[in-house]
Amino acid sequence: MEDLSKVIVFMLKDQQYGVNLQQVLSIERLQAITHVPQTSSFIKGVMNLRGDIIPIIDLMERLSVGSMVQDDSTRVLIVEIDTYKIGLVVDTATDVIDLESSMIEPAPSIIGGVKSEYIKGVAKLEGGLLVLLDLEHVLNVEEQREVLDVVNEEKVSGGH
Amino acid sequence: MDTTHYLEMFLDESREHLQAVNEQLLKLEDQPQDLKIVNEIFRSAHTLKGMAATMGFEDIASLTHQMENVLDLIRNNELAVSTNVIDVCFEAVSVLEEMVREISEGGDGKQDVSLLVTKLKQMGKQPNDNPSLILSKKDKGDFFTPIQFDEYQTAVMLQAKEQGYQVYQLIVRLSDDCLLKGARIFMVFEALDGLGEVIKTIPLVDELEEGQFEQDVTIVFVTNDSENTIQQKIINITDIQSVGCTAIEEIETIPKNDLKRDKITEKQKDSYSVSINHSPTKTIRVNTERIDHLMNLFEEMVIDRGRLEDIAQTEGNHELSEAVEHLTRVSQDLQNMMLSLRMVPIEKVFNRFPKMVRGLAKDLEKKINLQIVGAETELDRTVIDEIGDPLVHLIRNSIDHGIEPPEKRKAQGKPEEGTILLRAFHSGNHVMIEIQDDGAGINREKVIEKAVKSGLFSLEHAESLIDAEVNELIFSSGFSTADQVSDLSGRGVGLDVVRTKIESLGGHILIDSSPGEGSTFSIQLPLTLSILSTLLVSLQDDTYAVPLSSIEETVLLPKESVFQAHNQSVMDFRNKIIPLVDLRKAFELNNQLHDHPLIEKETIAIVIVRKGDKLAGLIVDSFIGQKEVVLKSLGSYLGQIDSISGATILGDGRVSLIIDPNTLIK
Questions:
Q1: Would you list the DSSP string of B423-435?
Q2: I want to staple B648 with a disulfide (CB 3.0 to 4.6 A). Which of B105, B554, B623, B629 is the partner?
Q3: pLDDT 10s digits, B521-540
Q4: pLDDT digit string, tens, across residues B354-374
Q5: Which domain covers residue B43, as residue numbers?
Q6: Are B312 and B249 part of one and the same domain?
Q7: Which chain B residue has its CA at the smallest distance from A87's CA?
Q8: What interface predicted TM-score (ipTM) does this complex get?
Q9: Which helix (DSSP H) or strand (DSSP E) does residue A121 occupy?
Q10: pLDDT tens-digit profile of B180-211?
Q11: Which of B85, B108, B126 is a domain's end point?
C-alpha cells in the first residue's frame, strides 16, 4: 500500500506550501494581534483564540521571503509543535490534498530563498511545485531564543 | 491484590501520619512524661505499619513495627524518654519519609533498614524479671491487631505449640444486619468447641454474651485442625459475613510490666477503634487538577463577565445593566469561594521547620527556640508549593548567621537560648510571613567590607550608603558574610535566589535589622496569583494592565514639571525626585512617524509604581480604568520577557499584556 499523507496547502506570495494536516489544529481568520515587546521581529504578537493566548508568527518573515500583507483572505494556521500552540500567518489556505510519499522529492539546497533545512521535500503537482515545510525546524524554539538573544545583545552593546 | 488504585491514598496518608509522628515526637521531647503523646505516635505508627504491609512495602512495615515496640516500652514505663530515644525515632521517621518519597517517585520503597531496626531493638532489650509475651504474626494489614496475653495464656500457648498444636488468630465479622449478635457468637464458640480450645477473645467473653461489641470479634484458638476446617465450620453459621484466619507463628519474648498488662490490652483496643473512626470534620479529598479545571472555567466566566460589562455600558439599557451588576456580585462571591477552595493553611509548610531547626541547632551547637504564630493562615496552593524552599533558606540563614553560639550570647547578656519567631498573618490582600531572630543582626562593616572586596562598589561610595541599602546588599548574588563556608549557608547562593523566587510569586521581601538585637525578614505575598486587580492603560493602539498592588498613585502632570537630570527625565513627587520611564520607548513602540514623544504632550499621564522603597513614574498615553483580570501565561514559546508578567483577555476579546513594574524600576 502506498504511504499517504494529508497535507494542507497554503500560499505565501505566489508559492504553494504545505504542512502535514496532523500538525494543524485549526485554520482561523486573523483577529486583532497584540504586539509583545522584546521579541523577534517575525513574532507579530499574541492573539486570543477562544480563551487561549497564542503567539502569532509571520511565516513569510520567518522564511525570509517578505512580510505579511493583511487582507480578507489572510488566515492563521494554528499548529501544535512539541507542546506549543502557535499561529502561522499565511496568505490563503487553499486546499487539503493527499500526497503519496513517492511524489515527494528531497529539497534542492535553496528554493525561492527558503533555507533547505526548513524544507522536508518538494512535490510536483499539476499547478506547480509544492514546498513541504518542516515545522519543527521552522519553529525551533532554541533557534527562536537564539535569535532573541542576539537581538538583545545587539541592543545592549549598542546602548553603551 | 492489585493495590495500585490505593497507592495515591497510601502516599497521602503516610505523609500525614509521618508528619503527625514528627510533631508528636517534638512534643514528647518537651514533655517526656506525657503518655498521651506516646499513644498518639503509637497510633500513627501502627496505622502506617498496617497500610504499608497491605501495600506490600515490607521495609516500611518492619521499621514501623520496631518503632512500635519501642513506643510500647515507653508507654509501659519500661523505657525512659531520652534524647537518644528521640534521636533514633527521628532517624527512623526520616528514613520512612525517604522511602515514602521514593515510592511516590515510582520506586519500590526498598531500603536497608536493618541497622535502624537493630538500633531500635537494642533500645527495647532491657533486662526485666517479669517477661510476658507479645505475638508477632505475619503482617496482613490492620485487620490483625497485635494481641497481648497474660502469663497463663502464654503458658498454655507455648505448651500447645510444643505438643504440635497450632495457634490461630481468628477474626469473625458479623453481617451488618445481624440482630442477635450474642447468640451468633455463642454459636461460633459452640462450633469451635469441638475443634480445640479458645485461649482469648477480644472483647471479653462476658461482653460477647451480652452482645456488647461491634461487628468484629477476635478469637485466639489452639487446635490441630487446619485453617480451612475452622473457617468452613464458622462460615456456615447464619449471619457470619467473613472469617479471617492467621496462624501465629513465632512467639517473641518482650519485657512487659505485669501490673499494667490488662489496661494496655484495653488501650490498644481503643487506639485501634479510634484510628478507624478518625474523621473529625467532614472533608473529601479532591484531586487538585479538578480544582484547577474549575478555576479555569471560572476564569473564562470572568472574561465573559467583562465582555457583558462592556456591552451593558455601551448599550445603556437599564435592565441589562442591572442584570450584569447582579452577575458581577454573584461571580464575586463565587470567586471568593473558588479561591478559598485553593487555600491551604501555611501550616503545611511550617510543619517541617521544628524538626529542621532542632537538627540544625544540634549540628551547630546552638540553642534555639522556634516559635510559630499564625500557622492557620491560609494561602493559595500554588504559593504554598513554592514558598517552602525560600523559607528554609531564610531560617537556615537566621540559625547560621543570626543566632550566636550560647557562650557568646551569655557574654552579651542575652539568654543562652536564641529565639526565632516565624509568623504568618493576613494583611489586606496580602499574606505576610515574618522570620524574626534575636541574633547578631547584620554587621554593617562586614557587609561593606565584603561588598568592596567583591568589587560591587568602592569604599568611598560605601560611606554614603544608608543602613537599609547595606542590608539590601545581602540579597545580591554571590554575596555571603560567613567567614567559612558551612554545610548550611555561606556559599553566597541563597538569599538572591530567595528574593528572585519571592518576586516571581508576585511578592516582596524586606529586611529590618539592628546590630546586636536581631533581624526580621518580612515577606509579602499576594493571596492569589490567578486573578489580579489592575489599572488598564492605553499605549499606542494597545491596552496594557498594571497590577494595582504595585501602583502608588496616578498623576496627570503638566509638561513643565518634567525635569532632566543626568540624561534622565525625572519628576518631583511629594518632594522626592523620581525617575520617569517612557513605556513607549521601553517597549520600542515609537517607530511610527506620526508619533510624538509622549513627553512633548501638554499633560502627561503617569502611573507611579513602587518597588520596595523605590518609586518610578511610568509614562503612558492615557488611563482607562480599574479592572479585575485573569492572569494568563504568554506560553513558553516566547521565552522570558522581562517587563511583561503575563497576559489577560479583555472584554472585547483582545489580549492585553500585564506589565511587571518591578523590572522597570532600576
A1: EEEEETTEEEEEE
A2: B629
A3: 999 887 766 677 889 998 88
A4: 888 888 888 888 888 889 998
A5: 1-126
A6: no
A7: B637
A8: 0.77
A9: strand A119-125
A10: 677 777 777 777 777 777 777 777 777 776 66
A11: B126
